[in-house]
Each structure stands twice: as structure tokens, then as C-alpha cells.
Amino acid sequence: MKKNLDLQYAAHVTTLTNKIKESYQSNANTMRELIAELDRQYKGIQQLFVNPKTGQINLNAMIYYKAPNQFPVTVINLEDKIEDRSTITFW
Known about the structure:
Blueprint: E1 3-9, H1 14-17, E2 21-26, H2 31-41, H3 45-49, E3 63-66, E4 73-74, E5 87-90
Parallel strand pairs: 1-5
Antiparallel strand pairs: 1-2, 3-4, 3-5
């Protein structure tokens, strides 16, 4: 099932996306799947956020996830689930 997401891009991420925010429909179930999906559209985004050696989030990257009616939290685990109508900020 497609999820409707509000994506926000900050700092150097905007050089890949050429935008600061977008409404985005995704089939991804996890943050890892979303990053891989976005990398097909914005080449290099996966390299910014996922360490190729460890498969974990890069230490110099920040992702904030806000589920509907919740406070934003820092993403540490790329296997975290994504809910419909969430807001995700890539920094």
C-alpha cells in the first residue's frame, strides 16, 4: 500500500534533490527501503545516509521521523517502520 509522506531536505541534501520539501508517495515499509527508493530518483542520497561498510546510518547524517500526531525523533535504526502521513527530514 502506498504511503503519503511529507519529505523535507536540509543543507547539502538539497543539492541532490533541488528542492527543500515535497509530498511523496512511497511503497517503502522501512527507512532503509525509502532511502533506496529515493536513491533511484536522487542519485547519491543513499551514499549520504547509509554507510556502505556497515549498512547503518552515516555518523555525519541526520534523519528525523515524525509519525502522525507524534513528536519527531532521530532515526538510528534504518529498519524502523514508516507510517502513512509521516514527515521525514533528511539533514
